[in-house]
């Protein structure tokens, strides 16, 4: 079979690899064909029919996203027949859709609205079906709102949940006029296996799946003079926020983001990267402790491999899908929750502020963080540790609402006390980053030497491959760690819950001998999180990752244990990693959940 | 619900535990229980190690895989035009009067559910209906009354 | 256009055929000879779409790979069609025989009958017949097993790729095509899927010879076919007729003297009004049918007929593609609104255009064929839609 095929689109010849589609070929020619159900990350559905084109010699139109490009094809993308059909398709979708656009969270950011605009649809051609539909809105989850009245049944969410996340909390139910996207027995998203990862949210073309926003709550807190509002920003926000504010993907906006937060009126602008570094101290020590108990004490109760715990989507996944492995999960809270617990204890003490007056806000690339902040066990400070979790997108909205010209902002620094971080904290935002940060610290604690990779770049754990294995031989250790002499530390990194599932299957089958597993729920890690700017595509994820590693290399401090504020907090407050105080504030437990 | 658990397990033992076993298992549950409850569906998902939402989505696709409680006898009256032309509406009314239920409802004693269905494939002998898996054709008021009375007597 | 006189034939249900002899002899023939017979006969699929059966078999036989399947589509659900039930009741062994011959040609070891849930009462008898069949093929030393899978009440599963999805335990949602079943069918393996009637005709062609079959019918529509005749007719039932007759002759034979329209091919087919009876050939050169012939006399409201059809499609659409899912709802609500006077008669033209879009842009045959009945009824009985 030939490796390339030649076809003609709108009078122009084009060659393309065999196996590619007519849509791919049109893209190559810069011919824009509208799509709705198509998404680069997902398998082809071919069900919205908005991408239909005319193929010479074929009576019916063909869906360009699903039609393989073939030798000799002659395609027309802009004929009367095509225009009529596309317009009808959009009109039909609108007739089933609650098109109350001005009251929609996705207003001006909706693919259906864009298409309707492009087609200049001024009045509706068909009958409004919405009044007869009995649509429901599910607002029970603190993370995700599912509004069936906005759904166009493109099934991007269903494919996301199945293909990328191996969860299938969402499926297609019923048929014909009643066909809908549904959870198990139409239960609330809050009551089912949903991990709150928000990957469906970043792929939903309309407002059918959106994050629950806390914009007004945050504004209210900011305007309340009685409150001291602290804000933390996750590693992956600073390399993506710019996309929602008119900047190119891959722009690093750390300084502008700090400046914007200050202008919004937050009383203290702090950094989750600080608690990312703290996580490394706690989790690294936990790993070494588990290894010692296994290797020296021969303690049969110690659970290895140990997995990371910073991704709340992953935590909910394992609670539902592999509850028998919950003891393998590090007891460390996520950086967001460590920050929250410290904001109302350590920070409050140092600043002399009544913790009941502190409002703790987080800016996260994540929707699952909203659920995590609302977990009942996340109240160790005596208050809800994190009061409101916002997505990167919500922060962008606030910046626009405040009339801030983001692009022109000067670079500013984070405030002191929980604002300092290392490059190791920054790379938490990319898949493999926690592993790399942990290895930088653990290796040095054990051997007294830097990890043996050029410029601290542990390349085997970087990149977008779904499952990445890396082994580090530990030699010439410091006397205290003699039990690790000659041990080859085996690690694996997975991102996207489908890959997580592969790793857990290997653990379950006993075919794996890893010591330490890093799992991030979202493809690409937090940089591809469900709270990040829309769209997120493979290309954009790549650019964000490059930005994260650029940011790391530009940092003065690259290792968590060298962060002076980390050293300070242990000296002044926590004592040492895994101390009683650490356990009280920085560690947690998990709950087995049903898989329905 | 230990019986449901046993039933599902038995069906999985018989039909297998892969995705292809799903329809036969769901059909088996309907044969025994007349409908597939949430508990039964969750149990199927567990046995087949698959998402419960996908089990639900599959079950709700098929008209005969009822997901609401049904009576011991499910009456499905064909509503295709050819049966309609031969007096289906009168048959429907007769059944409704006999059982004191409307289409879509189940009798209080849980013995009968009355549904309409698409073409049963007896267009030359309409009106036609199914009671569970049994076919009745060329119905008229007397005939359908006799049939239903028969069922009532034998409950 | 040359047409044939209406003629009853007796091939499918003929008693003279000893299935064992035909099967034993056919299995001794070379695949090339069998393929040549099926191709030469001109047999086209009897489910409605009419793809040449011999070509299907040939394509699948050319595919490499050990795992291939023969699937018998017994998900007869088209309103007005009941011939497959009759065939499976009366001559099931001929159906199995057709499957076995196809299996030999393409190299399949397993065959499946996908039987619609509405015909569950047939299952026990079919299983009994299968026992006999399996012991006979074993005697012949031919490695082939037929399994019965049950549908559960979903018209769309008669669409071949939806049927595979259903066999795989999923929602019966049609797949994108290409690839076609002969390359990627059940379990994504090369599969021949034929209608019940097609399989029996294949078997009977092996019995009577391609020539005898080819003599019947017209250039585009060779042979005979089993018709399911219902509606306003004094002699409703199953009839095997030579293809290519004029609808006029058909109505004369089967009508009640007052026939105003015939719906040819079920809800997915075309409505032919009285004035066109004399110009309409039943066959692929005229109006094709999977067998359903519904007759309506002048007492019938064509609005009710159309509403019954669009309601059917609205329910039975799988719902995945926009034109079909929403289009069916719009067509139904649209004609209701016009009838009630809530929409003007001009709205019928909008709906006609919508039906055209559904025809050219729906993902599968279901959505594509809604326009057949819609347009032909609205075109020919426009005033009945309005007043």
Short description:
With 596 residues, chain A is an alpha/beta fold. Helix content of chain A is 33%, strand content 13%.
Question: What structural keywords apply?
Answer:
heterotrimer, A: 596 residues, alpha/beta, Ubiquitin-like (UB roll), Rossmann fold, five-stranded mixed β-sheet, four-stranded parallel β-sheet, 18 helices, 18 strands, globular, C: 387 residues, 15 helices, 9 strands
CATH superfamily of the largest domain in chain B: Glutaredoxin
Portion in strands of chain C? 5-15%
How many β strands of chain C by DSSP?
9
Q: How confident overall, as mean pLDDT of chain B? A: 96
State the helicity of chain B in percent bands: 40-55%
CATH level 3 topology of the largest domain in chain B: Glutaredoxin
State the order of secondary-structure elements of chain B, H for helix, E for strand: HHHHEHHEEEH
Shape-level CATH architecture of the largest domain in chain C: 3-Layer(aba) Sandwich
Provide the spatial order of strands within the biggest beta sheet of chain B.
Answer: 2-1-3-4
Of all protein chain pairs, which has the greatest interface, and how many residues does each chain bring to it? B-C, 36 and 49 residues
> At the third CATH level, what is the topology name of the largest domain in chain C?
Rossmann fold
Termini separation of chain B comes to 25 Å
Number of helical segments with 4 or more residues of chain C: 15
Structural class of chain B, please? Answer: alpha+beta
Shape designation of chain C:
globular
CATH architecture of the largest domain in chain B: 3-Layer(aba) Sandwich
Within CATH, the superfamily of the largest domain in chain C carries the name NADH-ubiquinone oxidoreductase 51kDa subunit
Using only C-alpha atoms, the radius of gyration of chain B works out to 17 Å
Strand order of the largest sheet of chain C: 6-5-9-7-8
